[in-house]
Write a structure and sequence with these properties.
The protein has helices at residues 17-30, 42-45, 52-68, 86-95, 100-104, 107-116, 123-138, 151-168, 213-221, 239-252, 256-262, 268-295, 297-326; strands at 3-8, 35-40, 77-80, 143-145, 176-178. By secondary structure, the protein is mainly alpha-helical. Strands 1-2-3 form a three-stranded parallel sheet. The protein has a two-stranded parallel sheet with strand order 4-5. 41% of the residues are buried. Bound molecules: tryptophanyl-5'AMP. Catalyzes the attachment of tryptophan to tRNA(Trp).
Length: 331
């Protein structure tokens, strides 16, 4: 079976609609046909300041949301990054193969470091994409399902794999990003030209999987639209309405045109009300199942450790080969 690898940072109290649509809902579909690895990337999360107790909680909560949304731990290897030391070890090796200029061109680093300022920007944030490359390459992944914002990082991963292979001999499979066109980027409800993100200035445009229904409904009812009053998909002229239509379409599996037809001649309020129901239908069961999973911590931890053992076995195999290739003595 071909291999997929993907991950999310446990850096918020809840995943958001962009994570769900751009990544998680694809993963659950793909786990049937692939040997799938889904990682909670807690080493990535600490590239910006985290509260320790919260980080531990959020790591479990992120894993619980994966399962609640349909990742089956019996089919997929769902594990925590810090359970597998090879990630940090391979990242070090790849650091030595990455050009300083090459890493400086990563746009997400430029954005984030601008937001945090030079003094609070860590070197870890700078090398973040290289750790991500290590994640992917350790499992010899063929496909990496992600949202649009990760495209450049997967490109870097490919470059590093090719570089290593040509310098030291065939070692890594060169992965492909899989970025679904319609769902690659879900936008902030208040600022529909910016991607929905946990680091947005306000949470008013951020739909969280674990928020109660009334909070989400309010945010959807207040979503920014436009003055022309027509319910029609047009990303350029009508970014707000188009974003709502995309979300509606993805969550119901319906064509955009059928939704446009249903709402022809009706107001934005009707569309928003219907969308709030669709979102609630999707998230209510995820929320309930997440709560159940978090109520039995011991069982969740046991699941994660077992998956970590499997991940360790595979990752260690790749790392051994890497060490041999470059002449690092092993223990
Ligand atoms: P993270 O935690 O920021 O986001 C997790 C996933 O959600 C996608 N995503 C979105 N998709 C559509 N619309 C949005 N508004 C939106 N916001 C986020 C992201 O593209 C991502 O797929 N660096 C990664 C985590 C990572 C990783 C990896 C991913 C670490 N190692 C190896 C794949 C493979 C990140 O920060 O994702």
């Amino acid at each position: 079976k071909p291999v997929i690898f993907s991950g999310m940072q446990p850096s918020s109290d809840s995943l958001h609609l962009g994570n769900y649509i751009g990544a998680l809902s694809q993963w659950t579909r793909m786990q049937e046909e692939y040997d799938a690895f889904f990682c909670v990337v807690n080493l990535h999360a600490i590239t910006v300041p985290q509260d320790p107790a919260e980080l531990a909680e959020r790591t479990r909560a992120t894993a619980a949301q994966y399962i609640a949304a349909g990742i089956d731990p019996a089919k997929s290897t769902l594990f925590v990054q810090s359970h597998v030391p090879a990630h940090a070890e391979l990242a070090w090796v790849l650091n030595t193969l990455t050009g300083f200029g090459e890493a400086s061109r990563m746009t997400q680093f430029k954005d984030k470091s601008q937001r945090y300022g030079a003094d609070t920007t860590s070197v870890g944030l700078f090398t973040y994409p290289i750790l991500m490359a290590a994640d992917i390459l350790l499992y010899q992944a063929d496909v990496v399902p992600v949202g649009e914002d990760q495209r450049q990082h997967v490109e870097l991963t490919r470059d590093l794999a090719n570089r290593f292979n040509s310098r030291f001999g065939e070692t890594f499979r060169v992965p492909e990003a899989q970025i679904q066109r319609e769902t690659a980027k879900i936008y902030d409800l208040q600022e529909p030209t910016a991607k929905m993100s946990k680091s947005a200035a306000t949470e008013a445009g951020l739909i969280k999987v674990l928020d109660p229904a009334n909070v989400t409904r309010k945010k959807i009812m207040r979503a920014v639209t436009d003055a022309d009053g027509e319910i029609r998909f047009d990303r350029e002229a009508k970014p707000g309405v188009s974003n709502l239509l995309t979300i509606f379409s993805v969550l119901t599996g319906r064509e955009l045109s059928s939704i446009e037809q249903e709402f022809a001649g009706r107001g934005y309020g009707d569309l928003k009300k219907a969308l709030a129901e669709v979102v609630e239908e999707t998230f209510a069961p995820v929320r309930a199942r997440t709560e159940e999973l978090l109520a039995d911590r011991a069982e969740l931890d046991r699941l994660l450790l077992a998956a970590g053992d499997r991940a360790n076995e595979i990752a260690a195999r790749t790392l051994d080969r890497v060490y041999d290739r470059i002449g690092l003595l092993r223990r």
